[in-house]
Amino acid sequence: MDLTAIRDQYDRQLRLGARPDGPGARVEHDGPVVRQTGPVHGWNGVLWSGLGPDDADAVIAAQIRHFTSAGRTFEWKTYGHDHPADLGARLVSAGFVPEDTETLMVRETAAPSGPEDLPDGVELREVTDAAGVALLVRVHDLAFGKDSADLGRRVLDQLADAPDTVVAVVAFHDGEPVSAARLDLPPDSDFAGLYGGGTVEEWRGRGLYRALVAYRARIAAARGYRYVQVDAADTSRPILRRLGFEALTTTTPYVYEVGAGPAA
Questions:
Q1: Helices (H), the chain
Q2: 3-state class of 92 per DSSP?
Q3: Termini Cα distance of the chain
Q4: Could you state, in order of their start, the residue ranges of all structural domains in the chain?
Q5: pLDDT at 264
Q6: Residues 88-105: b if buried by 16+ CB within 10 A, e if exposed
Q7: Of 21, 140, 161, 186, which is most buried, counting CB atoms within 10 Å of its CB?
Q8: For residues 6 and 245, is the Cβ–Cβ distance under 8 A?
Q9: What pLDDT sits at residue 236?
Q10: 259 Rama class: left (phi>0) / alpha (psi -120 to 50) / beta
Q11: CATH node for 110-225
Q12: Rounded distance, CA 31 to CA 129, Å?
């Protein structure tokens, strides 16, 4: 794969050409910035910025004013190839808090995924209603140690408004949810997104993450997507490499909490 060309294609389609990810959300081009403003429980943030050293601080301040005036905590999702090189430091100076850096990884859907190799007694089910999404949220709460209620609301919004754009999958053992993930299928894009992939502690190390990747990659291929992409944590990166994924760049979210202070 020509990774530089794929990265440029990713930027054009999913950042510069981003579409709203759910009802009540809008994507706006504000000078050198592409941002999404949505409901309180939705994803709010900056998807793309083409900044230089002379305008970066003023543009950052303008985005803070936009989102705080709407009462929205928001995320500035940066990538390792973004400019200026000190963008992260500028965001921190403006009141943003960095979260963990992940690796944007990609592979072609045509690449073999291998068998799902589920442990005995485990089955994967797609969930499409409130009860099923509540089980996905329960797994995420346990797996990631934080409240995932807003995620559940976003998935339900997608399922109600555009069900062809999301697949939510839960792994069950004896009727109990033990792992969960979702697949985003943005319209008119070559890239399907793998998100979640959380497993409760006692079920880790048994191949569930790998099985969920393979399951979702097959769906993406069947829907005509050329690539699957994932923001990979350090724990996931070795597994994904073995499944044929390659690194495009890094990505770090910077979060600005409502009430963190006015922009200068």
A1: 3-10, 56-69, 87-93, 130-144, 149-161, 208-222, 237-242
A2: helix
A3: 44
A4: 3-103+251-256, 110-225
A5: 45
A6: bebbeebbbeeeeebbbb
A7: 140
A8: no
A9: 93
A10: left
A11: 3.40.630.30
A12: 39
Q: What is the pLDDT of residues 106-115, one digit of tens each?
A: 999 988 766 6
Tokens of 121: 């007694």
Share above pLDDT 70 across residues of the chain, in percent, rounded to a whole number: 97
* Same fold yes or no, 3-103+251-256 and 110-225: yes
DSSP state, 118? P
Do the beta carbons of residue 147 and residue 189 sit within 8 Å?
no
Enumerate residue ranges in the chain where pLDDT < 70.
113-115, 260-264
Q: Look at residue 111 in the predicted model and tell me its pLDDT.
A: 81
Contact partners, residue 247, CB within 8 Å, separation at least 6: 3, 103, 104, 105, 237
Q: Structure tokens of 27?
A: 């994507």
Place of tokens 């005036």: 69
Which top CATH class is 3-103+251-256? alpha beta
pLDDT tens, residue by residue, 37-51: 999 999 999 999 999
